[in-house]
């Protein structure tokens, strides 16, 4: 049926902020199905900040990839019959052929399909595991999360609120700040571009911060270290402020000595650390979504050709919640 | 018998490197002994880099203090009769009066008296606990320790060697570097003032560093982060390169993003974290000293009046091993 797919390739290694010319759409031939293989049509593509880091190490000319939700159009696998919805690692593709074992079937009745790229998927597991496992967050503790309007940060704050925490978030516009408080129940939020992070932390949590969920690096990490309580924890999920560094990288925090007398732990992690907990996470998150305890937003771009723009917008504050690209079936 | 003591006071808050004029020797009256009190004559005073940090927060005119070994001259306590050797927190003093409960009796047969200020005392427990507890060091792992000629760093390297580790140390002179290898059995050592830390780590431990015991901060922390293995640990004991920062503090490492994909933990600590393990530590360390497995050096200044010079010399590389001041009894 489909003899070829549209696939974005890396045209050149991005310098600083990625540009549309860094990406090239190519027509790629699809091989006929072999035993245990399926043809999948993608329905939702994920674009994520972590992809920027990966592009440093990919050879120009390589196809791009990442999480995607699709539907099986043709199947030579008994495990994944035609019509099955699947999670794959083939974002930036319109269609693809793969072995059934590389794909995860999705239950559209447990949660909406696109949510498997966000709150039920990688960003959700990142937030849940980073806060509760790496960050060892305890009920009632004070939390500061940066990039709190992003897919991960927003969930981190909501999960801490469900544990009775005092939650402070930062974001890059006054609209986002207002939404964090009104729509997501954050105790306090501020615009990191116009406010003084340390002053905001001090006024909202006079006794200090127990956990800082780190998404950005730079001045906010410095403020968090200064205002951290003894035995504070800083799970390092990302440092988006540093991803597009050209040449000389941005200096790190000048006050790492704060860690010594306050016994502070900083700990980097990626989502693979929590793979063994995925089932437990999905059960809990699906219940929270159904009860309305967890809310989430998606910013949806339309059509495969908008994928580079959707990706670039991640670095310009152009998304609220999970950034997705929706393809016409 | 003694109506007064000689006590160093902070004359003014040090700016940058401490100077002799920052300290002032005063004659202080000693109160007559009350029940449970003892009069102690100090025999050995400790000066340590951590005291520099504390001076930021002390009011000028305050008496200085820190670990010291002394002998009871007069006693109204049955627990500490005349002649008992004691560990106190009253460095920078010639004599003092204190309640017996504030003092720890020392066994001069278990280990030499001055060693209770070094290898058997705070620096020893710091090295042992920082490496084995905070750093979770496992037998055979590769270790990098900065300030490896210092009282703590030197022990860290030796303890790791006793666990079968590959040990790399840095120091500030070629003589010290040579001694680390010849006298202390380090596998590799380099002069951080003339060598490139990253190149040294790469050549000595091509597969990476499991634990970096952090004493200095700055460029060596950056090199360690870059060359760290997955799941590496960085116990942060001190950052002596930053202690004398004036005005604008030195920027931190530019590559904290290394922590993310390598699941690296940085964790600050001070020695009080290991108080509950002190007995276990002392038993093990005394055995290592007696068997000759652990070697140590002391740099000894003579006379109370040399205390400021001994302290200042800590920041000029003027010591090998533990820095002490010996008082005439």
Concise summary:
With 329 residues, chain A is an alpha/beta fold.
The helix content of chain A, as a percent range, equals: 25-40%
Oligomer: homodimer
Q: What is the β-strand count of chain A?
A: 15
Order of helices and strands of chain A: EEEHEEEEHEHEHEHEHEHHEHEHE
Percent of residues in beta strands of chain A: 25-35%
Rg from Cα of chain A: 21 Å
Low-confidence stretches of chain A: none
CATH class group of the largest domain in chain A:
Alpha Beta
Distance between the termini of chain A: 14 Å
Structural class by sheet pairing and helices of chain A: alpha/beta
- CATH topology of the largest domain in chain A, by name, is Rossmann fold
CATH superfamily of the largest domain in chain A: NAD(P)-binding Rossmann-like Domain
Inertia-based shape of chain A: globular
Task: Report the major sheet of chain A.
Answer: 7 strands, mixed
Largest interface: A-B, 33 and 33 residues
Indicate the CATH architecture of the largest domain in chain A. 3-Layer(aba) Sandwich
| Mean of residue pLDDT values of chain A | 93
Number of helices of chain A: 10
Q: Give the tally of structural domains of chain A.
A: 2
